[in-house]
Structure formats: C-alpha cells, structure tokens
Specification:
The protein has helices spanning about 5-25, 35-45, 50-65, 75-120, 140-145, 150-155, 165-180, 225-255, 260-285, 290-305, 310-320, 330-360, 375-385, 410-425, 480-490; strands at about 125-130, 135-140, 185, 190-195, 200-210, 215-225, 370-375, 395-400, 405-410, 430-440, 445-450, 495-500, 505-515. By secondary structure, it is α+β, with helices and mostly antiparallel strands. The strands form three sheets. Strands 1, 2, 3, 4, 5 and 6 form a six-stranded antiparallel β-sheet that branches. Strands 8-10-11-13-12 form a five-stranded mixed β-sheet, with helices on one face. A hairpin with a 4-residue loop joins strand 5 (about 200-210) and strand 6. The relative contact order is 0.05.
Length: about 525
C-alpha cells in the first residue's frame, strides 16, 4: 500500500487542490467541487506519513471556509452556510478516516512482517499440508533439514519425506488423523525417522497442529532433528550398562570371596578402579551435554549451601549440648535438640525433593485417584507448616465450592504444601497468605497469594526450571526443585499452573486441576 513513490502523488494531490479551489472560485454556485478536496485527501492514503493527509485535509478545509464568502446568486445565506458546513464536516471526517485506515494497515503490515519473520527464521522445520496430504508451504529450516529446494517440495505428498518402509502405514495414519484432528506430539513410545533428498534417514521429533478454513483442512508439522540427542542417549545408555556390569561383578566377587579378606580387598580395589574409570568416562560424556552441565552446576551450588547450613547447625548444637550437663540447664539442651531436629527435617526435605525428582525422571510416579476433602487437606497442611510460620503471619482461606474432589491426594497435598511453604518462607513477619479455592465446569482452581519478596521480571521465565533460585532468594533455604516438581505433578494430573509476581510486592500462583 505504501510502495508508491510519494512525489508524483503529492504533486497530483496539489494539482487537484489548486484546480478545485480555482473551479470553486469561478463557479461558487456549484458545491460538488468540494469533492476535489476529498479526492486529494483520499490520494494520501498511499503515502506513509500522516502529515500529508493533515496538510491536504486542512488545505481543503481552508478553501471551503474561504469559498463561503464568494458571491452566490442562487442560494440564500442559510443555504450557503449549511452547504459549506456540511462540506467542512465531510472533509474532516474523510481526513480522519484516511489517517485511521493508514494506521490500521500499518499495524496489519507490521504483524504480517512479524509472522513472516517467525516462520522464516524459526529453528524448527515447518511444513504445511492440505487435506490431501500435499505440501503447500515450507520454511528455510525444513529445506535445510531435508535437502530439497522449496520448488521441489510444493505440491508433493508428505510421504515424500517419509522413509520407504513407513510410507504405506503413514498414509493410513494420516487419514486417521484427518478423521480425528487435534494438536499432538507424534512418536510416543517409538522412534520417528524422516527421509532426506539423498535417501538418507535421520531421527526426528514431530509436533502436529491443525486448522480449517472454508475450503480445506490444513496440518502444520513442526520438525526437529534429534540425531545428536539420540546419539547422546545411546552413549549414556551404554555407560549405564557398563556401570551396571561393573556393579554386578563387584557383588559376585564379594559373595564368592568372603572367606579371603586379603584377596577380596585386592579384587575390590581392582573393581573400584574399574568403577572409577567407568564413572570418569560417564562424566566425560555428560560434560558434552550443555543442559546436563548446567543442572550439575546448579546442584553443586545448591548442595554446598543447603547441606552445609543444617550440618553446621547440627555440629554446633551437638557441641553445645555436651557443655550443658546440669539438670537446671535442660532448657538450653532442649533448645539445641530442637535446632538439631529442625536441621535434620530440612535435610530430610532436601532428600525427599531429590527422590521425587528421581521418580519423575524415571517415570515411576503413578496416579491414584480417590475422593479428597480439600478443606481437610488444607487444614492438615497448615498444621504441618505451623512450626515454620513466622511471628504474626496468618493464613486466610476461602473455599467457594464443594470441597470434595476426585484426584490424587498425595500429589495435591504436595502441591498445597509447596505453595503454602513458599508463601510463608518468602514473606516477612506480620504478612498474610491468602488461599482461594473454587470449582467450575469440572475443574478446581486453587489460588495462593502472598505479600512477600516477589520475583524479578527477567527471572520469571526460569521459575519452573530444576535447581533454579532467584537472585533475591539465595539467602533463603531451598533446593530450587519445589516448583519444578509441582509443575510436573500438575502436568501428570492434566492441569496447568500460572503465576503473577511483582518484585517486593508479592506473588500470586493459580493452579487448575480436573475435578470429578
């Protein structure tokens, strides 16, 4: 729309304005000459700058007002006034309409550029097919992945990109998908492969999205090359098998050589040496994975802080207890015993987080549905957290629905416990924690709001990452695993979690879960 050269349009609009003003001066009895001003304003719709529209609009308005005083023999004063007043209003409205249309088109043009950039520069291969399985659009990354030019793919069946041994079955899968369309990931429980132009195959991860217009149904495929990931998984599995083999050898040697301590010691040393060598090789393989390196670094940083503090507390309290030997010093002894218990509980919570994360990673967490009273569960969690609540802190609970819900009690309790624990832990003394529970359309909504330290905007995207600790929470106990585990549990239950937070003002977390 704004691709026309501006100078010819500006000159033409000026000519229209001047010609209209001249004709209006020569023939003041004819009001239709005002249409020339409107034409000049409308021509500026092809000019990007709004300034030209305002200039020609004000010019037309000026000449219209001036023409009011031209001699007119056919009309009365009131008729001339109404005629020119109407022309002025039409010119102003035309000018405002053109400015609005230019801004609207500019906004649409900007959005179109953003969408095109997202498509063209995406790091995933994107392939769009129609209801007949024909490729109608691909992005540059898809061309790179498969080795085809865009012109070679357009109009071809999607089976062109499928290995020969899977083509026949893929056609059936495609037809089934069109019968029951939906957004989904492909390849659960099996490996997926794609075929390049040269006939070679490579491992892929594919996500499908579908939409329909009046003419046809379309499917968008998002394709990622996971060859390197598969190779890393293979190496990790090989290292794990080697480690298990060494462990089995150690057990066998221990059972066979119990009677010979000296010989068993030598064999154990050899086995430990082999184990250390295998472990070193495994660490070298893991060091090649950037993501695992980051997790390891976070864990070491967290552990050095979180384990040192309670262990130091236990050591110092145990030392001080030995000094209080008199019966009248029982209060001091009890104080340090309580500190030791709290430190041990903290260590136990850390280990529970690690065990929960391990079970989630191994896929060993099962969902056990039962009828749960959310109000009673909330009271139970509050009672467990009472020793850790700071002075003056209060819990305000509001349940606006039937508290009974069929879900996994253990997971929901863990979610309650973590959210409330965080709310109290990151809030100061005298602050309140608010909990609202409601149900709607078979879904329960749990909202926990605190008045604590909040989370910086640039860190909120990492909130559910494992071992993540916000900068303003480094001096507060925690593993960085709590919300990661909560998010994983919510996903297992088919729910979702959202949050809003402002630094130094507080955080609001909302959890939505299916509720029968």
């Amino acid at each position: 729309m704004f691709k026309e050269r501006p100078l010819p349009l500006i000159l033409f609009s000026c000519a229209v304005i001047v010609a209209t003003a001249f004709m209006q001066y020569q023939q003041p009895d004819y009001s239709f000459f005002d249409g020339g001003y409107i034409i000049a304003i409308l021509l500026t719709i092809f000019l990007r700058d709004d300034q030209y529209t305002r200039i020609f609009g004000l010019a037309g308005l000026f000449f219209t007002i001036i023409s009011f005083w031209y001699p007119n023999s056919n009309l009365s004063f009131s008729q001339v006034l109404m005629q020119h007043l109407f022309s002025a209003v039409v010119i102003i409205m035309t000018m405002m309409l053109v400015i609005y249309l230019k801004r609207l088109y500019g906004s649409l043009e900007k959005e179109e550029r953003q969408v095109n950039a997202l498509f063209e520069f995406a790091t995933e291969g994107i392939v769009l097919t129609n209801g007949r399985g024909e490729i109608i659009l691909v992005n540059p990354e898809a061309e790179r992945l498969f080795g085809y030019e865009k012109s070679e793919l357009l109009g071809q069946k999607i089976e062109l990109l499928i290995p020969q041994r899977f083509k026949e079955r893929h056609t059936d899968y495609r037809n089934d998908f069109y019968q029951n369309p939906g957004n989904r990931k492909m390849g659960h429980g099996r490996d997926l492969y794609a075929r390049k132009k040269d006939g070679s195959e490579f491992a892929v991860e594919v996500s499908l999205s579908t939409f329909r217009d009046k003419r046809d149904q379309y499917v968008i495929s998002f394709i990622i090359d996971i060859t390197q990931r598969k190779e890393s998984e293979r190496k990790l599995l090989q290292q794990k098998e080697q480690l298990e083999a060494v462990t089995n050898d150690i057990r066998k040697l221990n059972s066979e050589l119990e009677s010979k301590v000296e010989e068993r010691t030598l064999i154990l040393k050899d086995a430990l040496t082999e184990l250390e060598r295998s472990q070193t090789e495994l660490e070298e393989a893991l060091n090649k994975e950037k993501e695992l390196n980051e997790i390891k670094s976070r864990f070491v940083s967290m552990a050095s802080h979180e384990f040192r503090t309670p262990l130091s507390t236990i050591l110092s309290s145990a030392t001080l207890i030995s000094r209080y030997q008199q019966s009248e010093e029982q209060q001091q002894r009890q104080k340090h015993v309580t500190r030791i218990k709290n430190a041990v509980k903290h260590l136990n919570d850390l280990l529970e987080d690690f065990l929960s994360l391990g079970k989630l990673e191994e896929g060993k967490v099962e969902i056990n549905l039962s009828k749960v009273n959310l109000a009673e569960l909330m009271d139970e969690v509050e009672e467990e957290l009472r020793p850790s609540i700071k002075e003056g802190q209060k819990l305000e609970t509001r349940i606006n629905a039937d508290p009974h819900c069929v879900t996994d009690k253990r997971m929901v309790k863990h979610i309650f416990h973590n959210l409330l624990s965080n709310a109290f832990k990151f809030s100061g003394e005298g602050k309140s924690v608010h909990v609202d529970v409601s149900t709607l359309d078979g879904e329960v909504s749990i909202r926990v709001r605190d008045e604590g330290i909040g989370i910086a905007a640039d860190e909120q995207q990492f909130l559910f990452d494992s071992f993540f600790r916000a900068k303003n929470a480094f001096n507060i106990q925690g593993t960085g695993l709590g919300l990661h585990i909560v998010n994983r549990y919510i996903n297992l239950l088919g729910g979702n979690i959202t949050f809003e937070s402002e630094l130094d003002k507080g955080t609001s977390v909302t959890v939505s879960l299916p509720c029968q």
